[in-house]
Amino acid sequence: xxxxxxxxxxxxxxxxxxxxxxxxxxxxxxxxxxxxxxxxxxxxxxxxxxxxxxxxxxxxxxxxxxxxxxxxxxxxxxxxxxxxxxxxxxxxxxxxxxxxxxxxxxxxxxxxxxxxxxxxxxxxxxxxxxxxxxxxxxxxxxxxxxxxxxxxxxx
Length: 155
What we know:
This protein is of the alpha/beta class and about 160 residues long. The protein has a single domain, classed as Response regulator (Rossmann fold). Helix content is about 55%, strand content about 20%. It is built from 7 helices and 6 strands, in the order E-H-E-H-E-H-H-E-H-E-H-E-H. It has a 6-stranded parallel β-sheet with strand order 2-1-3-4-5-6, sandwiched between helices. Helix 1 (about 15-25) packs across helix 6 (about 110-120) and helix 4 runs parallel beside helix 5 (about 85-95). The longest helix is centred in the C-terminal third of the chain and has 22 residues, at about 130-150. The radius of gyration is 17 Å and the shape is globular. The mean pLDDT is about 90.
């Protein structure tokens, strides 16, 4: 059986413990390191070369941290954890190189395992709790662009 390797970055040690337990119960996912510190996460990635980094967006340093990890470690796919109030950052994090995201408020063991498996196999993962809002946001932006094109500007 081929194992998927994963590293964890989150400022909450108890939450990291839950994540590790959930992933280890899956049987095919091995946690190769965990930390609360972005620099330590970079060291773990450099040494362990995990398939996936599951990282809290704030602990990562926001979307700038996503871009940094994606550019320095393209072989490690990034899944961000975020809070609902960080919704605006999700789309930008995906643009900067995140392969998926999970909303902390609605997280379940099954969803974490599904997301890591999907991303490790080259698929993106958007948690259901936010996917609808992202689609709605994109549709709104397209409608706004369409209405702007229809306006006549004085020459």
